[in-house]
Design goal:
Layout (H helix, E strand, L loop, with lengths): L4 E10 L3 E4 H7 L4 H8 L3 E4 L7 H16 L8 E5 L10 H9 L5 E5 L5 H14 L6 E8 L9 H4 L4 E11 L4 E9 L7 E3 L10 H5 L5 E3 L1 H22 L9 E4 L4 H11 L10 H4 L6 H9 L8 E8 L3 E8 L3
Parallel strand pairs: 4-5, 4-6, 11-12
Antiparallel strand pairs: 1-7, 2-3, 6-7, 8-13, 9-10, 12-13
Helix pairs in contact: 3-4, 8-9
The protein binds oxa(dethia)-CoA (UT7).
Length: 329
């Protein structure tokens, strides 16, 4: 019997209009365009402005675009999974809110917290519902409004992050395309290097936590960098090895966009040249769960049926992973 796989059949995306450039950041903190560009590869990032605008706004737009491209209605969605660390609210889930916004009356959904690997965790999870035959249409969104949890007086983090959303539709495929393999990893010992100190049940919000700026991203950049370079390259190599893939088999590497130096290290280890790597960090910065689907969104027109894609990530948690999939259209 032919195996049913979960194929991506449409992609949507949304980035806010406001562009925060390195030059503007130079006026806000002690930094320079040259430092940001050489250390990270980022030139500008998008910021969602406006009162009461949460991650749901970008997620809903990305899903609506995907539905329009595929020519289906929101009521056809069975399940919506939203990968995010910046949900609209602690509860209900942003998936709940987005289903209501777009009119996905027959769907249920939930948020998944996997930081920068959230989209890959969600894609792996969502694929299972297709592979088992339980559902026909599963939507996976990666979205973060990082500007909501960034201290714009902290030069070590504010230059890196941006806001954005990307979404993919998963449908059953019996023609050999779709998600072929995935290796997902996590290590809670990494928490100390990258986290948000307050606002959770361990340290609820108080005037003191606000005064101490404990509701912002805390990152020990160098420690995260070292783990990212090793683990993202290792897990990508592992997926290539267990699927007997050589660099010439790979059409595209779709890496999490945290730092061009991390991306280049992963590409080098996989033996891939620059023309096979999706990089848009210069325009959007690190949108956490949004980076990988936003790459697919931008490169969609260049992808061909049967292309071999490796999707790789590393981020807060620590969380990391790699998915091997064959493009279906
Ligand atoms: O996606 C989630 C996972 N996150 C990551 O993967 C991020 C991984 N880490 C990184 O990408 C890099 O560590 C950073 C981009 C965050 C920082 O780059 P770095 O090359 O590791 O710099 P550093 O932290 O070692 O800092 C070097 C110097 C320091 O000054 P001193 O102590 O040498 O005088 C910093 O204070 O650069 C200084 N610095 C800055 N200078 C200008 C830090 N941030 C800035 C800045 N502008 N924005």
């Amino acid at each position: 019997m032919t195996k049913t796989r979960a194929s991506i059949t449409a992609v949507g995306g949304c980035v806010p209009e406001y562009i925060l450039t390195n030059q503007e950041l130079e006026k806000m903190v002690d930094t320079s365009d040259e430092w940001i560009l050489t250390r990270t590869g980022i030139k500008e990032r998008r910021i969602l402005k406006g009162k009461d605008q949460g991650s749901s706004v970008m997620a809903a737009k990305a899903v609506e675009e995907l539905l329009q491209k595929r020519g289906i209605g929101a009521e056809e969605i069975d399940l919506l999974i939203i990968a995010t660390v910046t949900p609209d609210m602690v509860f209900p889930s942003t998936a709940n809110i987005v289903c209501d916004m777009i009119g996905a009356k027959n769907a249920w959904g939930y948020d998944l917290s996997g930081a920068c690997s959230g989209f890959l965790y969600s894609l792996t999870t969502g694929s299972q519902f297709i592979e088992t035959g339980m559902y026909k249409k599963v939507v996976i969104v990666g979205v973060d409004k990082m500007s909501a949890i960034i201290d714009y007086q902290d030069r070590s983090t504010c230059v890196i992050f941006g806001d954005g959303a990307g979404a993919v539709l998963l449908e059953p495929d019996q023609g050999g395309n779709g998600v072929i393999d995935s290796v997902m990893k996590s290590d809670g010992a990494g928490c100390k290097h990258l986290h948000m100190k307050a606002g959770g049940s361990r340290r609820p919000s108080t005037r003191e936590t606000v005064d101490n700026k404990e509701h912002f991203v805390y990152q020990e950049g160098q420690a995260v960098f070292k783990h990212a370079v090793k683990n993202m390259a290792d897990v990508t190599a592992e997926v290539m090895e267990r699927n007997a893939l050589t660099s010439s088999d790979i059409s595209w590497l779709v890496p999490h966009q945290a730092n061009t130096r991390i991306i280049n290290a992963t590409a080098k280890r996989a033996g891939l040249t620059a023309d096979k790597i999706m990089v848009n960090i210069q325009k959007f910065g690190n949108t956490t769960a949004g980076t990988i689907p936003l790459c697919l969104w931008e490169w969609e027109n260049q992808l061909k049926k049967g292309d071999n894609l490796l999707l790789s990530s590393f981020g807060g948690g620590f969380t990391w992973g790699c998915i091997y999939l064959k493009w279906a259209y």
